[in-house]
Write a structure and sequence with these properties.
alpha+beta, 5-stranded antiparallel sheet, 60s Ribosomal Protein L30, Chain: A, OmpA-like, 520 residues, 9-stranded antiparallel sheet, Outer membrane protein OmpA, 22% helix, Bact_OuterMem_StrucFunc, 13 helices, membrane, Choice_anch_L, 2 domains
């Protein structure tokens, strides 16, 4: 009986693996950015693409091979080579000659070394809210042999405006860029997935490649000749025959090594930045080989993941009106300023500082905030931006009697390790705060954010922080006596308030923050 059960389980595993795969296809990158990449709250335009057609392809991942099921891959080689059984300890392809390195000003500020096979997408965007983000995974065949070496293939997500520029491809909760040397099997390993089937041996790095690229052809033809970019046969300079290690294979995900040829890949990561609503920015997604043109790397970008949302956890957050029904953000893409396209009726209701930038301090608790943030000042009536403009001068002048408000300090609800139920000691704090809130609910809105310590994966902790948010929302609803719809964001462990290396620090990070925002 045990024998038949084992055979059945083996068969089911085989069926699951056989259905798992990565499929790649050619795509018009500018159309993908406009139709597939952007989600809610972002308008894009002025798209530019650099690189060869085979370096940028669309993909779908079935059977949970990748953490991102659908999107775009940018590679420093032929992206068609990414899919398939990981049957070699290295994989190399190139579109340029090793004697002709390329250059990029943004990458030069991040890493020193010659650059090859640069692939990039850049475009202008206008966010409708104060926080933008998207999801990605980074993989490479430089893993694991070239960790802590100069062969540190580079990628970056550069967000810029007229005065600031910064890379937001960062390790969660830090200012450290994601790279082969910073996320691997021994450094920040909680963000890393090992896919290396081969023993750690000393090998001589293969010789750089000469380009075999003969010019741009339509995508359907390129797919047919994609194999010409793949190095086949004995690799010059590689003096050791490396065989898969059966013991290593036992520790790896068979779905992954049967379908992905990179020897390592990150978990799903989130690129995030604080921005000024209704202002034009530029995003540059770029990747390159460093030091030589071999051992390919790639970054997977998830469909529909570029979004903006209101995040009240931004340091010095000031609430701002929703102008999405009032203005056309495409005019800002074309170079117009917010004050130029805002209807006169709304200009009169916005105070003068609303059309000026205000510099906000960047703190260690907000590692992904931009250097300068400005927001429109709130209108005198929160409903004004969604209503029809006043038709008379008298209707535009409103005299408001300022109420005397009780102070509503923000509060923090702490949780036990891996738990989302609210302890009685924390419920006492919550009851006291909500009693005050009930008395002046018309003058305040409530926002919350869930956080965790660093134990466990990023994805698991996003789910845990969401469960903690739900527990607080349910408790607040019970205390108020009606179902509450409270804006909530899940932060996982990306914004710690204390050191995750100590018990006390981890306890302080297991929290939900309640922020009371004064209405105007």
């Amino acid at each position: 009986m045990k024998k038949y059960l084992y055979l059945l389980l083996s068969f089911l595993l085989f069926v699951e693996i056989s259905h798992a795969q990565i499929r790649l296809s050619s795509i018009k990158v500018d159309e993908w950015v406009k139709k597939n990449f952007t989600g809610q709250g972002v308008v894009v335009g002025n798209i530019k693409v650099k690189g060869y057609p085979l370096s940028t392809l669309s993909y779908t991942s079935t059977g949970n091979v990748l953490k991102l099921q659908k999107g775009l891959i940018l590679s420093s080689g032929n992206s068609y080579n990414v899919a398939g059984y990981n049957n070699s300890h290295n994989q190399s392809s190139t579109f340029g000659d090793v004697m002709n390195p390329e250059s990029d000003q943004d990458l030069a500020s991040i890493i020193k070394g010659k650059l090859y096979d640069i692939c990039s997408i850049e475009f202008d965007f206008v966010p409708l809210d104060n926080s933008i983000q998207f999801n990605y995974q980074f993989g490479s065949d430089e893993y694991p042999e070239y960790v802590d070496s100069p062969y540190n293939d580079v990628f970056a997500f550069i967000v810029s405006d007229e005065s600031t520029s910064r890379n937001i491809a960062l390790i969660p909760g830090t200012q450290v860029p994601v790279s082969i040397n910073t996320v691997n099997f021994k450094t920040n390993s909680e963000h890393f997935i090992d896919n290396n089937l081969y023993k750690q041996v000393t090998i001589k790095r293969q010789e750089p490649l000469k380009s075999t690229y003969k010019g741009t052809l339509p995508g359907r033809v390129l797919r047919g000749i994609g194999s010409i970019f793949t190095v086949s046969g004995p690799i010059a300079g590689d003096q050791v025959v490396v065989q898969p290690d059966p013991e290593l294979m036992k520790t790896l995900d068979p779905n992954l090594y049967r379908n992905l040829r990179y020897d390592g890949i990150t978990n799903k990561l989130v690129a995030q930045a604080y921005v000024i609503p209704y202002k034009k920015y530029r995003l540059k997604i770029i990747l390159a080989d460093v030091a030589d043109n071999i051992y390919d790397s790639g970054v997977f970008i998830e469909d529909r993941s570029l979004t903006s949302k209101k995040d009240v956890q931004q340091p010095n957050f000031t609430d701002y009106p929703d102008l999405s029904k009032v203005i056309d953000p495409n005019l800002i893409l074309q170079g117009k300023k917010l004050e130029d396209i805002l209807p006169d009726a709304y200009k009169k209701e916005l105070s003068k500082p609303a059309l000026q930038t205000q510099e906000l301090a960047q703190t260690s608790k907000a590692p992904v905030s931009v250097q300068k943030v400005a927001e429109p000042a709130p209108v005198s009536s929160p409903k004004a931006v969604s209503a029809s403009p006043p038709t008379t001068a008298a209707a535009q002048v409103k005299v408001a009697i300022k109420p005397v408000l009780m102070d509503m300090p923000n509060i923090v609800i702490l949780f036990d390790f891996d738990r989302s139920d609210i302890k009685e000691s924390e419920m006492i704090k919550l009851r006291e705060a909500i009693e005050k809130f009930k008395k002046q609910r018309q003058y305040y809105s409530l926002n919350i954010s869930g956080h965790t310590d660093i134990k466990g994966s990023l994805e698991y902790n996003y789910d845990l922080s969401a469960r903690r948010n739900k527990a607080v929302i349910d408790a607040v609803s019970d205390l108020i006596g009606e179902k509450m719809r409270i804006p909530a964001v899940s932060k996982s462990y990306t914004q710690p308030v204390a050191d995750n290396e100590t018990d006390d620090g981890r306890q302080a990070n297991r929290r939900v923050e309640l922020v009371f925002v004064k209405k105007n």
